[in-house]
Amino acid sequence: DQQVKQNSPSLSVQEGRISILNCDYTNSMFDYFLWYKKYPAEGPTFLISISSIKDKNEDGRFTVFLNKSAKHLSLHIVPSQPGDSAVYFCAAWFLTGGFKTIFGAGTRLFVKA
Amino acid sequence: ETGVTQSPTHLIKTRGQQVTLRCSSQSGHNTVSWYQQALGQGPQFIFQYYREEENGRGNFPPRFSGLQFPNYSSELNVNALELDDSALYLCASSSGQRTYEQYFGPGTRLTVT
User: Fold this and answer.
1) Residues A58-70, mean pLDDT to the nearest whole number
2) What angle do CA A67, A70, A73 make, to 5 degrees?
3) Which residue on chain A is closest to B42 by alpha carbon?
4) Which residue spans within B1-113 are E strands per DSSP?
5) Average pLDDT over residues B88-111
6) CA nearest to B5 within chain A
7) Are A105 and A10 in contact (CB under 8 A)?
8) Does B105 touch chain A (CB under 8 A)?
9) Mapping DSSP to helix (H, G, I), strand (E, B) and coil, where does residue B95 land?
10) B64-68: strand order across its sheet
């Protein structure tokens, strides 16, 4: 039962353009959604979060949008830089029945110089 | 500020053996979570500890157990190792106020032969 889905295994973008990473979820009980970035041989790095009661959160070049009716969120990176090349994980967190975080399978982003 | 550290980095065990993995949380963090990440997949939540008690658990059998110590460091114990337990094991810490924002260590690569 995949509650958090990232349907695109990879994405390639030109440097300076916008990268849009997508994520779908099935459980309406999630309280927060998060994005993490992972480089090889390192643990995931926290990027940005959004509460389930918000529809947008922005931090520098990173913006997360939440569409609750569609159970969809997206991460926008503007402008994309070669150093952004990594695997991006979408995650959802909820408290009901005990704390739990569910991760998607990840999307590998390639930013071409 | 010290980040999350994990030991050992790599480990090879034989099926049926037991293993203990260790994690030191980031300074100021009192919550620790453990994840299993298989190749090509996102991290899967094992459990979370807060103030030395388990307060959230994923779909893992009881042979996966943990401990949190008064200094907030943590151990993950796996009994009766199976071949499918081969994976990267990640530890993440967070503060009680923003439990959903987790900071990961580099992981322990466990190989079961």
Assistant:
1) 97
2) 45
3) A105
4) 5-7, 10-13, 19-24, 31-37, 44-50, 53-57, 64-68, 74-78, 87-94, 103-104, 108-112
5) 93
6) A43
7) no
8) yes
9) coil
10) B5-7, B19-24, B74-78, B64-68
What digits encode the pLDDT tens for the residues B7-38? 999 999 999 999 999 999 998 899 999 999 99
* CA trace torsion A108, A76, A92, A101 (10° rounding): 50
Chain B interface includes A34 (CB < 8 A) = yes
Question: What does the pLDDT look like over A1-52, one tens digit per residue?
Answer: 579 999 999 999 999 999 999 999 998 889 999 999 999 889 999 999 999 9
Instruction: Please check whether residue A80 is in contact with residue A56, taking contact to mean a CB–CB distance below 8 angstroms.
Output: no
For A34, the token pair is 């998060």
Other Cβ atoms closer than 10 A to B96: 10
Type of residue found at B98 = R
Whether chain A has a CB inside 8 Å of the CB on B106: the answer is: yes
- Give the count of beta carbons closer than 10 Å to the beta carbon of residue A44: 29
